[in-house]
Design goal:
The complex is a heterodimer of chains A (about 120) and B (about 280).
Chain A lengths: L2 E5 L3 H14 L4 E5 L2 H11 L3 E4 L8 H10 L6 E5 L4 H7 L5 E6 L4 H9 L2
Parallel strand pairs in A: 1-2, 1-3, 3-4, 4-5
Chain B lengths: L1 H5 L4 H22 L4 H11 L8 E8 L2 E8 L2 E5 L6 H9 L3 E3 L20 E9 L2 E9 L10 H80 L6 H38 L1
Antiparallel strand pairs in B: 1-2, 1-6, 2-3, 4-5, 5-6
Classes of the chains: A alpha/beta (about 120), B alpha+beta (about 280).
């Protein structure tokens, strides 16, 4: 079954995303982290089919997370999931090969449906 | 000398006067068109010799802070702008009347005034004062350049024209100076306007930046609230909603309120900062 990794410093956001995913397909395994610095050490072990990554986080932000992945040559597919509608952020995200899309919160279930179906 | 001028001219005299007046009107017309002191000096060199004879013709004009000296000989004309008087000019200023000297060599004048003794040089001087203008005219004559007292009529006419013209040129200079001052002020004001405009533009840009940053900060808890509300439809039991969704909704609303308060405090501080 598909494995999904959530990285967002807000527990509530992860809770919402989990509910959405389970509503679409309760079979998916969801691994959620509020500390990206911990999540990055688990990526290879979990080997997720997709990562939903927030950008604006304390300690380690989403950009640093992506850079770490690049350095460790992790090719996992990433969807950015952020409340930022900034075009600058959207442009910056294009610099990373493994970033497959840029989603703005609140997540729409139809969009999530499409993303999960494409895995 | 005064008696000579007042004498009624005889037949030949009147003919001479007519020709001289024609020469004077030519001089006067040319002088009127002069735009610089050098042009005036040139006009004097060309036209004066038709009015009377002289070795040296000198003009010393002063008005307010302006002083102009023009020295004319039949072959040369020079202009100086110095605040200085020749010795005989000092005497004329004190005497306030026309004078003449039969021994100009004793006055220690510049070289151009020195003549061989057999020329029997004579120095003539007139002082005119009108409004705030002071004009001293001196003329060096001699045996070969004979000047008679009756020629003084033309000296007076020339003096009047010169005084008006020199004053006009000085007034133009004053006007130019004032214009320069005004245009400097204008330039400074333009610079101030440019600077203020760029300051305002920079402040505007800063305010827009702040508002964008704030909007992003506010969107985070708001997006959670919107997400939680859409979860309500997925809840299978009222219990699930009450236990799982409502507390998180409450928390997110409190976070939104907190963020807004922060944003307001920060924006107020920034605006106060920009005003300073």
């Amino acid at each position: 079954m598909k494995k999904i990794l959530l990285v967002d410093d807000m527990e509530i956001t992860n809770f919402i995303t989990i509910q959405f995913i389970q509503h679409i397909n309760p079979q998916y395994s969801v691994y959620d982290f509020t500390e990206p610095e911990k999540a990055i050490t688990q990526v290879n072990d979990i080997n997720p089919d997709v990562i939903f990554l927030d950008l604006n986080m304390p300690v380690m932000d989403g950009w640093e997370f992506l850079e770490q992945m690049q350095q460790q040559q992790m090719q996992h597919k990433v969807y950015i999931l952020t409340s930022s509608t900034s075009d600058l952020d959207r442009k910056r995200a294009e610099n990373f090969n493994n970033v497959a899309g840029y989603l703005v919160k609140p997540l729409e279930t139809t969009l999530l449906d499409d993303v999960l179906a494409s895995l | 000398m005064e008696n000579l001028i007042r004498q009624q001219p005889s037949g030949t005299d009147s003919q001479v006067y007519r020709i001289t007046y024609e020469a004077f009107s030519k001089f006067s017309n040319t002088l009127m068109r002069c735009r610089t002191i050098d042009e005036i000096a040139y006009t004097l060199r060309i036209h004066l010799k038709y009015l009377f004879n002289f070795h040296v013709f000198r003009v010393n004009f002063s008005w307010e802070e302006y002083s102009i000296q023009i020295n004319v000989s039949p072959t040369n004309a020079t202009v100086k702008e110095l605040d200085s008087l020749l010795p005989h000019e000092v005497i004329l200023h004190q005497a306030k009347r026309p004078m003449h000297w039969t021994d100009p060599g004793s006055l220690s004048l510049p070289d151009e005034f020195s003549m061989p003794p057999d020329e029997e040089a004579k120095l003539w001087g007139w002082r005119f004062e009108r409004l705030d203008c002071q004009l001293v005219i001196s003329l060096l004559s001699g045996k070969s350049k004979y000047f008679s007292g009756r020629d003084a009529t033309f000296i007076k006419l020339v003096a009047e024209s010169l005084e008006s013209k020199l004053l006009e040129l000085c007034l133009f200079r004053v006007l130019d100076k004032k214009n320069q001052v005004i245009s400097n002020i204008n330039q400074q004001q333009q610079e101030v306007i440019r600077q203020r405009t760029s300051e305002i533009a920079a402040k505007n840009e800063k305010l827009v930046e702040i508002s964008i940053m704030n909007a992003h900060q506010v969107r985070e808890p708001l997006s959670r609230i919107l997400g939680l509300i859409s979860l309500v439809d997925f809840c299978k039991t009222p219990e699930q909603m009450k236990l799982q969704v409502l507390p998180r909704l409450k928390q997110s609303a409190a976070d939104l309120d907190e963020t807004l308060k922060e944003v307001i405090t920060k924006a107020t501080a920034e605006v106060a900062n920009l005003k300073a």
